[in-house]
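Quarterly update, task 2.4: adenosine-5'-triphosphate-bound model.
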Amino acid sequence: MVELVIDNLVAGYGNVSVLHNVSIDVGEGQTVALLGTNGNGKSTLMRSITGLIKPTAGSITLRDEGTDIDLTLCSPREIVEHGVALVPEGRRLFPLLTVEDNLILGAYRREARDTLHDNLDFCFTLFPRLGERRTQQAGSMSGGEQQMLAVARALMSNPKLLLIDEPSVGLAPILVSQMIEKIGELRDSRGLTILMAEQNFNQAIKIANKGYIIVHGEIAFASKDATDLRENEMVKSYYLGA
Ligand SMILES: Nc1ncnc2c1ncn2[C@@H]1O[C@H](COP(=O)(O)OP(=O)(O)OP(=O)(O)O)[C@@H](O)[C@H]1O
Ligand SMILES: [Mg+2]
């Protein structure tokens, strides 16, 4: 299992910095919620971890069985090879390709090629709906089905660290609950370390081991554990209007 340690990260776009000294820690096998409303920097943090934008200061360390890998020095491709997978905001599927072809494309990580068939079986067991629709064009599936496919495609790379950018967005409440439950199951069955950006606080706390609230690119609150997240006054006032 891996741990993700982000220390004093500064990142943004061009001359505009969006993240200001962000420090977070996702322990081995933990699911950590990154909570924040629109435009506060959740996706920017996800893009920094996956190497899509280069931070201007700070460090992002993937600790893999005692070996530290500084992800800020790696290309996006190398980061994938180190076992980091992102379920991006907006899903980014290949709409004209079938469900199965989208999944196969998720297995481009070198280490994942040998286990492609086992991983396909795993995804179809996790989300039976995808198995029933393996030959359907991804773009013609419902929003909920596309979100399942986006998560499954990330799993096809045999990740150690799974980053999920707003799994619940655009889904009906019942599907949100199901998706959150599946993510919780994955952590337990695959020993994954998970960082999940969410706006849906009530759903996120069902599975989170702890959480952070990001406001204007700064960590405004870091919880010690799940109880602390659930019961903290600042969290309540921020999310529940109490
Ligand atoms: N490509 C870009 N170029 C310039 N600014 C950007 C770019 N992408 C995002 N930003 C800005 O960075 C800030 C943080 O955006 P980000 O997408 O990280 O927020 P978010 O928390 O993911 O929001 P949402 O919940 O709406 O997805 C915003 O002010 C946004 O306008
Ligand atoms: Mg976002």
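Highlight for this quarter: The radius of gyration is 17 Å.
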